[in-house]
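seq as requested:
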Amino acid sequence: KTPAALQLLLNAMSVGETNSGQDLHRVADLIPDPDMKRRVQKHYADDMKHGKVFGARLLEVGGTITPLPKDLDYEEALHDLKFGLLRERLLDDRPLDDEDLIKFFAGAKVTEATAITDLEMAKKGFEVDPATERVLAEVLKDEYNHVAYATEELERLAARGHEARINALLREYAALENVAR
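struct tokens:
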């Protein structure tokens, strides 16, 4: 609850959401299904908005947006663990296939669920700061929507015969995500 702790939290959230958003933009470019593409584009817009609102709040409390050190960068830790749809795949211009989509949505479901848990804890921890609490609550609503749409897309993929693969990846990614934290 110290000013330095709040600044660290807001910086990590601003940088993390912005970095995630940049990857989502490329994912959307590679999705052939227009409805799925639209949903990922909305997720991209949400994450970029989250990066801005966390960054604005950080500036209000006297901090500055700075790159995260490698040992505090959750996104990079996940990447190093080969979690989700890897950035190397995003450099390839081929449309995403079902395996790529399963990796992406399974990874999104796991990380967005973790974001919900983290935001709920931060919201409780910063109840003394109503402005930060409002920012956290605003972002939290979007995170619930992200889990919901990732789940729906995984259900669509499961209906195409990928249920076992999805369940295996969800278990694997949950375990990897625990290592990254």
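The first helix runs from residue 3 to 29.
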